[in-house]
Amino acid sequence: MHLFSLEGKAAVVTGGNRGLGAAMAFGLAQAGADVAIVQRTPGESDNAARIRGLGRRCETFVCDLSDTSNIQPLIDDIKAAFGRIDILVNNAGVQRRSPSVDFSGEDWDYVMQVNAKSVFFLCQAAGREMLKQGKGKIINVASLLSFQGGINVPAYAASKGAVAQFTKTLSNEWAGKGVNVNAIAPGYMVTEMNTALMEDPVRHEQILQRIPAGRWGTPEDMVGAVVFLASGASDYINGEIITVDGGWMGR
């Protein structure tokens, strides 16, 4: 369907080499986009090869997002390589778990830096390019913890709350200028970040019982939402946080 086609678009996906990011990057390519994968570690990712197998262009860019001074050069490099930036998916994130009474300042700063500060400045840098073009789609990855507090993850919850709020702020400023800013809030997903929860039989069962769909989510469950928000089908959707959670938030 033309409404959901991303032919001729250039998409940037941070953390697009594995987990949720890999599935979303591949899904955008299936819809027709060329993809820039941003990853922390050097080396070609398997996902880049999969995307090229679709006949789409895919380039990898190595960037440490814990240092925001790296962000503008990253966006400049991607713009130079692809000629434009139509879609930005801010997926990269980190987690630190500890009871709040023991949570360290070092862990707090690191989580907030990667999950909130770097995401904002990626929005800013890519947003400048999109505003010049008069069109663009920014999709931030929020969380159920944008709405809830969680357990033993105070910095993560704070960072994802921040993502939800500045998604709305940027939407207020840029919706009238052709740039859509929205977010996806995944529920409990089978990813490396959630290994500790999945391996805890008590917490795993508690979580599963709360999900009306009766299962944890998979990275592929994110694809429909990200393609929708990246496409023309969502041109009149601004400042929204779409939950992909198997019904968790509706319970």
How does this structure look, described?
- It is a single chain.
- With 251 residues, the chain is of the alpha/beta class.
- The chain has a single domain (2-191, 219-245), classed as NAD(P)-binding Rossmann-like Domain (Rossmann fold, 3-Layer(aba) Sandwich), CATH 3.40.50.720.
- Helices cover 41% and strands 15% of the residues.
- It has eight helices and seven strands; from the N terminus they run βαβαβαβαβαβαααβ.
- It has a seven-stranded parallel beta sheet with strand order 3-2-1-4-5-6-7, sandwiched between helices.
- α1 (19-30) packs parallel to α2 (46-52) and α4 packs parallel to α5 (154-174).
- The longest helix is centred in the middle third of the chain and has 29 residues, at 105-133.
- The chain is globular.
- The two termini are 33 Å apart.
- The mean pLDDT is 96.
List keywords for this structure.
single chain; 251 residues; alpha/beta; Rossmann fold; 8 helices; 7 strands; 41% helix; globular
Integer-rounded radius of gyration: 17 Å
Structural class: alpha/beta
Instruction: Bin the strand percentage.
Output: 15-25%
| Shape summary | globular
The name of the CATH architecture is: 3-Layer(aba) Sandwich
Distance between the termini: 33 Å
- Helix proportion: 40-55%
The mean pLDDT is 96
What is the count of β-strands? 7
Major sheet size, sense and barrel closure: 7 strands, parallel
Structural topology:
Layout lengths: L9 E5 L4 H12 L3 E6 L6 H7 L5 E5 L8 H12 L4 E4 L14 H29 L2 E6 L12 H21 L4 E8 L8 H4 L2 H10 L12 H8 L10 E4 L7
Parallel strand pairs: 1-2, 1-4, 2-3, 4-5, 5-6, 6-7
